[in-house]
Structure formats: structure tokens, C-alpha cells
Amino acid sequence: MAEQFQLRLADSFMLAPTVRHLSFERVDGQPLAFVPGQFLQVHFHYDDGKPTKRSYSVGTVGDGSGPVERIEIAVSYVDGGAATKLLGELEQGGTIDASGPYGRFCLMEADRNQRYILIATGTGVTPYRAMLPQMEALMASRGCRFMLLYGARNEGELLYGEEFEAFARTHEGFTFHPCLSRGARPNPRPHDRLGYVQDMLAELEPSGETDIAYLCGNPNMVDAAFAALKEHGLAVQQIRREKYISSR
């Protein structure tokens, strides 16, 4: 159930030249109960006093089963953006108003599929980071496999890339494919792919018999991947979507 609360910035660092990772704690000292895949809304005002809000997926890697003390999000900077001004300039100890959690972009207990195809661009990969403990549990309990296709222009924009690489090395059921649209990195890795994520789908041979897909990120990518997955035989209910739209 959604709540309203204040968050205090506990730590932050730059994930990429225009993306900041922020770790918050609730000012009231309470942990945050959320389901991996859900998001928070940050509430603030434009310079003219008009209220507004922005949504950010919770990226905290907990144990997947209970509340967390640290609330982690990734924020993309938008030139001239009001949220960028707020969150880009927020100093450690600074506070913001928030509410949540919201959303149903989550792994579902009733699913009985054999494989998950997870697709993301930009900060759309954040909810998959939070899902890692659940993925580990599903690999153990149901023998599920997970394929993560993550689109970025270059190596420097692969958010949490090393974390996903490390998870793939220790979990046979998880494969991570960075999809780089502006050319290979200086030291390519075996699972790297060149091009856009939606163009890589054919290689995975998606199947309506075995797969459920999650799409998160740029709206154009989400729409293109959705259409491609339907062509491969996935029904609409087997494709779960969340679009990230940049707002000023």
C-alpha cells in the first residue's frame, strides 16, 4: 500500500556521465516495503510553484522477501530538467518528498514459464537489478532461465553492467547480453552484441510456449520489442511493459 514519506540522501555516485545513483533512507527511520519492479514518486514544485512529480524504479538489491533500509534509484539527467536540478544538485543529508511504492512490473508467483526475456535501455535496467534475488530463487525452485538484453550506446552507459556480469558468472541460468548501438567496446566480451536490443531478439528464438518478456526503458524500444515479440508468437499477456519518458 502506497505511503507518503520524506527521504534523506545517504550516499550517491555517478553511474555514467549523465546518470546518478542515489541511496536514500526514510527520515522517519522506517524501512520501505516494496516488491522488486515497483517504483516511487518524487514530489516537488516547479520554479513557478506548480506541483509535479517524477517516477523512479527502486533498484535496491535486498533479499527479495522483506523491507529494505536503503532506497536506491538511478536518475538520468535531462538538460534543463526540473527533476535534474532537484536530484542532480541534492547534497548528502538533503531531503525530498516521496510516495510509494507503486506498480505491477514484477515477477508473478502464478507464472509457470520456463524462461524470462528481460529487455532494457538506460535506467530501465534498474528494476531488474532489484529482481536479482528473486531470479536466484526462481532458478533454484523452478529451474527458470533469465536472458537480460540491455541496450546502451557504449560501454560507459551500461548501468550496473559489472554487477550483472558478476551475477551471470555465478548463476548458470542467467545470461547477460549488453547490446551496444554505437560500436564495440575496446575489449569486447563474449556475450556482447552490436546493435539495438529489439534486433537481437531473433537470436533468442522467443516462444509463446516457454517465455514471458519484460520491457522497460525508452518508449520507442518498448514498442519495437513488443511488436517483434508478438511476431515471434508471444501473446499480449506474456509481454509486460514499462516505459520511461523524460520530462522537464
UniProtKB/TrEMBL annotation:
The record, for Pfam families, names: FAD_binding_6, NAD_binding_1
Record-annotated FAD-binding FR-type domain positions = 2-108
Cofactor(s) of this protein: [2Fe-2S] cluster
Q: Give the transmembrane ranges.
A: none
Q: What is this protein called?
A: Ferredoxin-NADP reductase
